[in-house]
Amino acid sequence: MIFDEEGDPAVRVTKEPQVRREELLDVALTLSHEVGFEGMSVELVTQTAGVAKGTFYHYFKSKNELLYALAERFGDGLFDTMNAASQTPASPTERLRALMEAATAFKMASSDSTHFIVSFMRDENQALRHRMLQAWEATARIFLRPVLVDGAGDGSFDIADVDSTTDFLIGLWFDFADRLWVRATAAPDPDSFAQTLLSGAQALWQAQERLLGVPVGTFTIPLGQPVDNTLATIYHHVQRKP
Predict the structure, then answer these.
(1) What are the beta bridge partners of residue 70?
(2) Residue 168 contacts residue 211 (beta carbons within 8 Å)
(3) Rounded CA gap, 203 and 147, in Å?
(4) Which residues fall within 8 angstroms of residue 170, CB to CB, at 6 or more apart?
(5) CA-based nearest residue to 165, from 179, 144, 180
(6) Which single residue of 98, 150, 227, 235 has CA 20 to 30 Å from 111?
(7) Which residues 6+ apart lie within 8 Å of 217 measured at CB?
């Protein structure tokens, strides 16, 4: 029997499995920012969380599975937000605009998102990122394609083939964005970093306009001080390179 500091029998605190799992993910997210995914060991996670290793392995088979779960949680939140935006009772063009703006807002809404993005995009996580991006592309297709179907049907979008156009847009959203991040992180200062990302994002939205055959200026990047501040914060996180 375990006793507390006063000599009385200690009461063991039990938590719902999902609560404990989320706590471990929260600890891992914080540690991934402080020491990087590579420097984050199972032992460090369990020590920080105050649990036994057996508890960790009850929820995750390995550290890699933990990292994948972190990426899944981020993706679930992102796509729930984007899917809700795509269901807005509006024109296909307005739904697509709302979808992309929701994605941008989600990524910049919290420090947790910033921490995850920076850690996830590090070179040592390339294999994990590739695996996760494949899953995210499949998920994005589920709610993007119906918007394009509706836009092709009512003439909002001038596209020859919905499925091919969906493929092109998915490539812009994920493959191009991955390449853009690599270029941005090579920037020598915060201003250059922000400029690379913003000009690249503008090029992406411009390419999307041309793919869909909509007027120039249909999609614009929401700029402002919050965006500038977030990009500066991300740059400094990148330069820390734990």
Answers:
(1) none
(2) yes
(3) 21
(4) 137, 140, 141, 144
(5) 144
(6) 98
(7) 209
Residues 153-205: pLDDT tens digits? 999 999 999 999 999 999 988 888 888 888 988 888 888 988 898 899 889 98
Given a contact cutoff of 8 angstroms between Cβ atoms, the answer to whether 20 and 54 are in contact is: no
**22-65 per-position pLDDT tens digit:** 999 999 888 877 787 778 899 999 999 999 999 999 999 998 88
Task: Report d(CA 186, CA 239) in Å as an integer.
Answer: 10
For residue 18, the tally of other CB atoms under 10 A from its CB is: 9
Distance CA(160)–CA(184), nearest Å, equals 34
Structure tokens at 21: 């799992």
Q: DSSP assignment, residue 117?
A: H
The one-letter amino acid code at 171 reads G
Which residues are CB-neighbours of 159 under 8 A, at least 6 positions away? 148, 151, 152, 165, 211, 212, 213
Q: Where are the alpha helices (DSSP H) in 108-161?
A: 111-120, 126-154
Is 8 exposed, middle or buried, given 0-12, 13-18 or 19+ CB atoms closer than 10 A? Answer: exposed
- Given a cut of 50, whether residue 4 has pLDDT beyond it is no
Residue 81 CA to its chain's centroid (Å) = 11
Q: Which domains does the chain have, with CATH numbers?
A: 67-240 (1.10.357)
> d(Cα 128, Cα 120) in Å, to the nearest integer?
8
pLDDT category of residue 18 using cuts at 50, 70 and 90? confident
CA quadruple 58, 64, 69, 70: dihedral sign: positive
**Residue 213 gets which letter from DSSP?**
T
